[in-house]
Write a structure and sequence with these properties.
Chains A, B: Keywords: Hydrolase, Protease, Proteasome. The structure is a homodimer of 248-residue chains. With 248 residues, chain A is of the alpha+beta class. Chain A has six helices and twelve strands. Chain A has a domain of 169 residues: 4-Layer Sandwich (Glutamine Phosphoribosylpyrophosphate, subunit 1, domain 1), CATH 3.60.20.10. Chain A starts with a strand and ends in a 10-residue tail after the last helix. The longest helix of chain A is centred in the middle third of the chain and has 23 residues. In chain A, helix 5 crosses helix 6. In chain A, a hairpin with a 3-residue loop joins strand 5 and strand 6. At the A-B interface, helix 4, helix 5 and helix 6 of A face helix 4, helix 5 and helix 6 of B.
Chain lengths: 248, 248
Amino acid sequence: MTYCVGMLVDRGLVLMSDTRTNSGVDNISVFRKMFTWQVPGERIITLLTAGNLASTQSVVSLLEERTKAPEERDNTLLTSPTMFQVASEIGSLLREIIATRQEANGIRGRDRFTASIIVAGQIRGMEPRLFLIYPEGNFIEAGRDTPFFQIGETKYGRPIIIRGYDPTMSLEDAAKLLMVSFDSTLKANLSVGLPLDLMVIERDTFEAGHERRIAHDDSYFQAISSSWGDALKEAFHSLPDYSFYQGD
Amino acid sequence: MTYCVGMLVDRGLVLMSDTRTNSGVDNISVFRKMFTWQVPGERIITLLTAGNLASTQSVVSLLEERTKAPEERDNTLLTSPTMFQVASEIGSLLREIIATRQEANGIRGRDRFTASIIVAGQIRGMEPRLFLIYPEGNFIEAGRDTPFFQIGETKYGRPIIIRGYDPTMSLEDAAKLLMVSFDSTLKANLSVGLPLDLMVIERDTFEAGHERRIAHDDSYFQAISSSWGDALKEAFHSLPDYSFYQGD
């Protein structure tokens, strides 16, 4: 399994992914699920991937190949004029890869491969944008009403994002919120695992603002993880006490 | 979907269930998923059900029928000498009902009906006990290491129980903790809905200690729901701030 979140705030984009892949509990590995391309000062684009690893790696490898072949006619990531076109192109690629593999294996219905991709970024002259691409190749865009996307093991870490999100929050606070959301997920589900990758894209900078791999020995993440338990308990006790006799 | 939790603390058992059933989002209904039988002063047994509603209602109806027929030879709920035997009997009943229905419909593999039941209670002379019964009819028992069971839509509300649970907590606090867990789930998932049913079984009383239906207009639940958002935000801000420059 996987857990990735892409979040849009007024000041930019904050993205986080775990790195665990598993095929059964006795076959776990570390794979990067966050990939960034940039033309400094002009554009930065980050992908977060979940689902069938062979499919998402194929998408990323093809995109990567294209960035390295300057004569390649549809060098999507580096030349597309809009983020919408980037998302659209990645969607086609994902759909095609899944479809080809399924047809080759005669796979249908519920056994189909599945994968989804979060695409985030900003191109000069335009707003930061955040998309969620489905295995069918179509996609949706985040906005004021739904300012974040989660993929993979999304449920454990959702309540805290719903409660903690604020569009005006600082990028540091947004990163902290994602750490708490990931910590809640890590505590409850073995299929999501450290290290985590964090990427912060500050609005109108067109470059990676802050990039970090959070490993087991990361002292800040450890502090969040250990103090969140106490903070939650305090929050819990700050709520009005329940009495069996009230209102009866 | 459904969300039910059974929790064992030193002072007894606390149980909560929602009441929403849905078959698609345009066909939702309210059904009770919590059922209690008692012989005051001697035993109290509560069931929480999740999964295929026709199957769990069958189990409950059969159990109920048997309590009303004094000549019925295996009047499990009211005469079984131990909670283990109660769980075992309910397990057989559940397995049988599911198997019969599947065979009659030629259903196999992943399309099978599924349902699970939490059984909680205490019989005089013995400890309070808590079981989780699987559709296969077998079951597990809660203990010190895993003192609570969740069924249905379990993930959203799990992190707060993991963080907030303490075996020495009062029954009032245990009820409050379940309300927070349900509130987190209700906020994130439409398939879990009010009203909620709460049952508190105080150790060695052998009767329903506190029973309550929490409806939309329940002022305590409203207070929890509205103050939990603020309490969480405060907890979040009490954590050490993240800085992009630390440790770099």
